[in-house]
Amino acid sequence: MTSTDETVAFRPAREADHEAVMAFCATTWADGDYIPVVWDQWLADAKGALLVAEVAGEPVALGHLAMVNADEGWIEGIRVAEAARG
Fold first, then answer.
1. CA-based nearest residue to 50, from 23, 78, 25
2. Best exposed site among 18, 22, 49, 69 by fewest CB in 10 Å?
């Protein structure tokens, strides 16, 4: 992604996003990332939401909303592909 005028769309994550998300999470930290461990759990989370941001149909960011209770949520696992930052 080289242009800043690209349209960003947010949507629920799907299983088909797995490969693209794992690719940009692979470089989050030198010693790895926990997203591969929690992916399936977060994707199945009926009380929360696993969201991706996409540009031109490709996932470029990820975030999970975990509901603590009916009135409180916790945002975690925010990742942005290096090429989409800035």
1. 78
2. 69
Q: Taken in order 84, 29, 52, 17, is the CA torsion positive or negative?
A: positive
Q: Which of 56, 47, 44, 55 is nearest to 13 (CA)?
A: 44
> What does the pLDDT look like over 15-53, one tens digit per residue?
999 999 999 999 888 888 999 999 999 999 999 999 999
Evaluate whether 33 touches 23 at the Cβ level (below 8 Å): no
User: Which phi-psi region, left, alpha or beta, contains residue 27 (left: φ > 0; alpha: ψ -120 to 50)?
Assistant: alpha
What does the alpha-carbon distance between residue 64 and residue 33 come to, in Å, rounded to a whole number? 15
